[in-house]
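Task: sequence in, structure out. Protein: Flp pilus assembly protein TadG.
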Amino acid sequence: MKIGSRRHQEGSETVEFAISATLLFLLLFGIIEFSVALFDKATLTNASREGARTGILFRPAPRDTTVGGAEDAAIEQAVRDYAEQYLISLGGEPPDGMEVSISRSDASMSPGSSVTVTVDYAYQFLLLPGFVAGLGDFIDLSATTVMRAE
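Result:
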């Protein structure tokens, strides 16, 4: 009688493994994807700091602080250089897809005025949207840094 009951259970381990392995791999890839997204968030924060640091550097008068001027170009270039070096985009947009916005409290950049650099980036998931409905294709990551000229 034991031999007959054993025959009815053949392959049950395979079915159990398939169910548990699917959940295990979904959890594993979820951890990896969200870890990469958090790393990219930290990278954007550091890139905005680099841009703000570039913006508060002392430069002799006259300063070109107009929108789209030479200083804005230097700030944006500092942000993009840092992002290109450290950003991990597994299927995401290249750093060219970043939006960098710069604002100043005082156009003359006198001591005590501040520079605000905001970086927006759309991180695209690699695998998860195919498995989890309603997750969306990307997460909007944003970082803002305010530095004061002293």
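The CA atoms of residues 68 and 92 lie 27 Å apart.
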